[in-house]
Amino acid sequence: MSTPLLSARGLALSYHCGAPPVFTGVDLAVRPREIVALVGESGCGKSSLLGLLGGLASPSAGAIHFRGTPVQRTPGEVAVVFQDPCLLPWLSVEGNAGFGLGFRRLGLPRAARRARVAAALADVGLAEHARRYPHQLSGGMAQRLALARALGRQPALILLDEPFSALDAITREAMQALLTELVHRRASAALLVTHDIDEALRVSDRVLLMGGRPAGIVGEWGLLGVLGPAPRARHTPRILDLRGEILDALTRHRTSQVPVHSVSARPASYRLPLDPLAISETP
Ligand SMILES: Nc1ncnc2c1ncn2[C@@H]1O[C@H](COP(=O)(O)OP(=O)(O)OP(=O)(O)O)[C@@H](O)[C@H]1O
């Protein structure tokens, strides 16, 4: 098996000295060309874990390795995409896509920067909107631009924190297909934090479930051999079985005390809400 691009061993995080840890003992790995989905109940620590992996905070314990080497700072080969596209309103689409590429430490000549931005905007279908400004974009376009900004760095690994959760269902599916296509074509890898088990089953090669208190990785499902390559059709019988399995595991490893109603009587056509545990059973 190939060396993981990114791996974590025994990661723990407490936000304050003496506070109970949000998670402990987290081991995970993301391999080249792999899309891994991280799912779990709201508040269990998914974003906090992604923040550690993306270098936005330091762990209380444990180690992060990149290409097998321990790292203190997240390398430039890792890019992060947040739920909020975080665009700079005074910069054009082109300017936002290239933001950061001009940093001196990257040493990128102007022509190379322009080529990267053009390629990234073409990849996400925004080439013809390069001169627009963020207020002239739809939510889906803004999210594609955030993805283009990450792609411009030509990352080996993209960390995504619920990047599509604010989009309508059709745009979300288009973005999911785009993400899988880009990861496969650019031979990179992705770790996707999502509330949405359907999304995890549609786009990922492997699902990790975070849960418990303090949280940890409590379940893992390899999808590639079972469901074939992503993106996948919705609601095939095997996907529905797996969705039930993951939801049951999620319920067993709950973090919070939000009441949960029976999941067994749910019809096959039941549509998961964004937070699968915030279920109010209307007849
Ligand atoms: N900066 C912070 N300071 C203190 N506590 C924090 C901070 N950020 C998050 N937390 C706490 O850490 C826990 C995990 O939060 P986190 O946002 O990582 O969960 P999550 O699984 O991503 O949630 P959601 O799915 O709702 O986004 C929560 O109890 C939260 O209140």
TrEMBL record:
| Keywords attached to this entry | ATP-binding, Nucleotide-binding, Transport
**Record bears the keyword Heme:** no
One matching Pfam family: ABC_tran
Tell me the superkingdom of the source: Bacteria
What is the designated name of this protein? NitT/TauT family transport system ATP-binding protein
What family is it from?
Belongs to the ABC transporter superfamily.
Q: Which GO terms describe its molecular function?
A: ATP binding; ATP hydrolysis activity
Query: Which segments constitute the ABC transporter domain?
Result: 8-237
